[in-house]
Each structure stands twice: as C-alpha cells, then as structure tokens.
Amino acid sequence: MAPNHLRTALIGAVAIAILCPGTLAGRQIAQTFVGVTYSVRTAKEPRPLTMHVAQVDLEAPGIHFKVSPPDGDREVVRQSTLDFLKQEHAQLAINAHYFLPFPSADRTAWVIGLAASEGRLFSAFESPEQSFALVANAPAINLDPLNHAALVHNNPAFIDGQHVREDVSPWNVVAGSSQIVTGGAVTVPVYRDDQHPNGSLTAGGPSGYSNAKAWADAMTARTAIGLSADRRTLTLFTVDARGGSEGMKLSEVAAVLIRDFGVADALNLDGGGSTTMAMEGANRVPAIVNVSSDNPSGRVVATSLAVFAQRRER
Prior knowledge:
With 314 residues, the chain is mainly β. Helix content is 9%, strand content 34%. The protein is built from three helices and 24 strands. The protein starts with a helix and ends in a 6-residue tail after the last strand.
C-alpha cells in the first residue's frame, strides 16, 4: 500500500468523472508526467472493485521503456516491481511475465514466454507446463527503441521459438498467459473439449479446470497490458483483490479495457499476488499505488515493465 503522503498527494489531484451511472466511477489523476494519464477507477457492481490504470501516449516526448534484464543462473534475478522502479529511476512500472519455479523463495527464475530487454532476447515462445492457464506460444507486445508498438507471434518456421512472424526486431518484449482482447473483441481462451475442439487450454490442473470451471473465471487480482487500434496508446491495467476490492474475471477485465479505455488488443499478464503498479509520486517518492495481494512491498517477481517519462512543469 502506498505511504500516506503519496496517497494524499494523489487524491489531492483527483477530478471526479462518472463512466457508467450508478456502477463505475473514475477518479482521474492529474497528469504528473508528460504523456502519462493515471486514474483510479472504482466500481460497486458486480462487486466492489478498485482498478489502477495508466495510459501512455507512445508519441509523447521523453517516453521510453525497459523490461527487467536477463541475469543470474536461470534467466532473471527476481525483484519486486517497486525495487525495479527505484533501481532504474523510472516513473511508472507494472509486473509482467509469469515465471517458474513458483511458489519458491529462489533468487532467480525462468520466464514464461517471449522476453527481451533493450534488444537482449532472453526467453523464447514456449508451451508452458501450466497449460490449464497459459496458452502455447502466447502472443507478446514489442516496444521498439522509437516506441513503435507491435503485437508479435511465434514464427513456426524456426524451431527455437526466438523469431516472430512480424517484420520487427524484439526490443522490449512482454508476454503473458494469453491474448484476452483481439481486434476490439473479448478473446479469453477456452478449454479443448467436445464442444470446443480448437480450444487452446488443457482441462485439468490442481483444481480440475474446465469450461464449466475456468481458471479465467476466478475473481482475483489481475494485471493486463493493451494497445489502441492506432498503436499510439499503451494501457497498463491492474485490479486489486485486497483493500476492499474483490478482483475480476479475465472476461471482465477484457470488457472494461475495450469499453472504457479504447483497447483493441490486450494480453493478460501475471496476476494474483504478483499484481503490482508502482509509481513516482508528486513528491518524487516511489511507491506501490495498488494494494498488493502478497505483502505491502509487493511480491518479488521475475520481470517488470518500467516507463520513463518527463515530469510536467508546474
């Protein structure tokens, strides 16, 4: 949870805007950074919810990004999103990739899915062990040095899983469990069964997941990343499952991203106790702005995506 002085500074900048009468309200935070709009959205229906959303104008001056870099005896050294924000002197950060082993207190981890940091590609497309939750060769989002954003997919012509079909070079890349918004429509994956022979998930897992009891339907904390149709706006989304917020299904996250934030394509990133959004406050003190489901300092995760932006002059 953010320190009181940061939360007071944020709330002091709030302007109230009603998005859906009687259900969804938005508390819009003044743009502290050039090209970044941060808001806290609350809802009473279908359950109490608190969403933290940052929208980044990819054409704004001074905007650039960095994914946690490769290191250690596996692929990355685990670090909390807040510590990554502080280390890089960034202005905003969210958690990103799923990782293994988990649960674990190990210092290092393997990243699940395509990952690159400033041109260093260190994790490939893959068929994850958690096939009840993560699809094989999940799409990723690439942000190049000029902030051109692209959704990228595995190129099956190469067996190493390190090549994309699109005519781009991986620079800063994040991937998640699946693509939950495609072309402005909800595309949460389903399980293969007699009615869904082309489903991309495998039924089973520790809780016996199926289309009747889907992993995606759990009400939990979520992190998502999305792009507008014109690829100019990057949306970073978190919803809490603590502090009076009760979490969301993936289909609900996808619907909100489409309806309220103009997202055309979105990925579900690691959620639950990993869900973290950290930000440099108006007083220049970095803090977690959401309420972590893990601990007040946030879970030590595999990767985070940092956003660098210029502070607005007053």
